[in-house]
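step: validate -> pass
step: tokenize input -> pass
step: predict -> running
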Amino acid sequence: AIEKLIDQKRPWSAINVASRGIPNSPSGKEENLLESTLLLSILHAAIAQEPNPSEILPHTLFGIKKILDYLFNIDAPLDNLTTLVFAYFPLLQHHHEPLALSYALGVNPDLFVDLVRHMRKKKQNLNNSNSSLDLQPIHAWQILYKWHGFPGRRKDGTLDESMMKTWIKQVRLKLSKFDLIDEGDFFIGQAFRNIPVDPKDIWPPEPIRDLIESLRSNHLDNGILIGCINSRGPTSILDGGTEERKLAEQYKKDSLTVQARWPRTFRILRRIANLYTKEAHRENQEAQIYQDLD
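step: predict -> pass
step: emit ->
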């Protein structure tokens, strides 16, 4: 049925059909090899063709992301997937980040550098002839700002310290040539919030603390702070700041643990703790006002 839809030049309908047949977890590699070829051909065909409005159903965009994530999980070529993610980004920008993009940014420093340059496209005097990406500056910014991965991220979500150090060294060196190192540091700092706690249940883990102290970058520090605050997500006015107080205490606790060896990290964590303390106070006042009106 899928091949027939492609022959009929209806790849968008093929996406809807194909996504319903994707299992929740990948199985045998031999079976997946043929299946991945078919799925990739569907995505390439669809993006090259203007869709009929009747083919874009409510679940179509979910289906595109489902196919992309499935292809990533069965080890389809990462470069191919990344190209498709960027091609579909205008459609997927308000959906959860595809796994391939999250991973690719953390292992490919050139990709990160290209996005930072595209974000400042006017400053860099970029055009499609001297870049491998075809993105609007706002889309490049959205990808960097919403990145759920981090430098040196393994596929299992853990941190590869050696890869992370090499990635950051290469990124900063390349961005320095374009006078964009401050912008890069900010988004690197934001991404650090996605790194898991260390074996002692302290965040940020020791390799990141060492990096913070050695780089001494205010833009990196500010990125870390903004990343932490933005990762909080929506809260309920009715809890009176309970969750914010818990977060403030955790950041204070971690700051005291790292204070002696990592003073710059200590100051970042204290700034975050203070912001959450203020937010808890504000939400407590709003909750009291709400209760008085009830």
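step: describe -> The CA atoms of residues 78 and 282 lie 45 Å apart.
step: cleanup -> pass
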